[in-house]
Amino acid sequence: MNGDGQGGLALAIMLAAICIALIPMILFGAAGWFIARKRKRSPWVFATVGVLLGASVGALAVGFTFFESTMERRGTLEIQAPELDGEWVVLLEDSSASTTLSWSGSWRERATLTVPSSGVLRVRSMTKVTDVTINGQPVTGAMSQPMPRGLTGEVLRAYSARDSSLPPSDEPLDLVSTERLVEWVREREARSR
Length: 193
What we know:
This protein is α/β, with parallel strands linked by helices. It is built from four helices and eight strands, in the order αααββββββββα. It folds into two domains: 7-70, no CATH class; 74-164 and 172-191, no CATH class.
């Protein structure tokens, strides 16, 4: 077998998941058995109920241990950019910004943000954001980095919802060169004032 060399780790994780699921079943089943014996009832009924309760607790424990990201609250940011004159939306996370996200919903929270045609906007905080759409379309490219020198704020986030059938933008966003990125953002920010 020419695998990735992580077979031992996978086996250890699988055994841990089995133990996390089985231990509550055994403990609850044994507790049901002993309670039934003390009360002079049928131990099989109490043991079966205990095993079922233990299986539920074990399944929850495995879920919270290994699949915690599926159980976290998710925040979808719906970016409205009807007059966007490029393919990128750049959000500058800046604690001094006046724009804030207003969340609605309970488990699947949503916030809507209208971005000017320049595609650049400063936002106070984006900590809840897990999913992003632009004009109702899922993003096709995303980048997040600490704010580069030359720009104020904490985090720079760039999102693209470029349709692959369209020609590339006349003013592409250079995500590799920090100097060009800062220049691009400054120019666009000045244009939106």
